[in-house]
Amino acid sequence: MKIVELWYKLLVWLGIRKPLYQYLYVQDFPDVWKEKTVYLLGKPNNEWLAGLLCPCGCKKKIELILLPEERPCWHLTIHKKGTLSLKPSVWLTKGCKSHFFLTKGDIKWCD
Ligand SMILES: [Zn+2]
Question: How far apart are CA 80 and CA 25, in angstroms?
Fold first, then answer.
């Protein structure tokens, strides 16, 4: 483990920093999805599908298409510090009706 990761985990453990979303490249979505994880299908710079659990805690699996020719589609940015952003916002029209941005690994809720 790198010292930066260790430091980050310490800050999270101390409650100074919120745990951020991590991303994981997978061949296929796993059966059980972990919280605070964005699963990416495809290769780096060639991702086509992202999956994450709804951040409200309702356990809904959200799948986001990353192909620019599809509608709707989301734009994925992976930042140097290992965080990621998705644009535009994610808005669930059914169920919990969550509406949020995932920006640099952090959830920003919309009212
Ligand atoms: Zn939800």
Answer: 16
Which pTM value belongs to this model?
0.86
Going by C-alpha positions, the residue among 20, 72, 74, 66 that lies closest to residue 46 is: 66
Q: Which of 66, 61, 28, 64 is nearest to 47 (CA)?
A: 66
Q: How far is the CA of 17 from the centre of ligand 1 (A)?
A: 23
Average predicted confidence (pLDDT) for the chain = 94
- Tell me the per-residue pLDDT of 70-80, one tens digit each, with 9 for 90 and over: 999 999 999 98
Query: Ligand 1 mean position to 94 CA, how many Å?
Result: 9
Domain residue spans of the chain: 21-109
Mean pLDDT, residues 84-104 taken together: 97
Ligand 1 centroid to Cα of residue 62, in Å, is 9
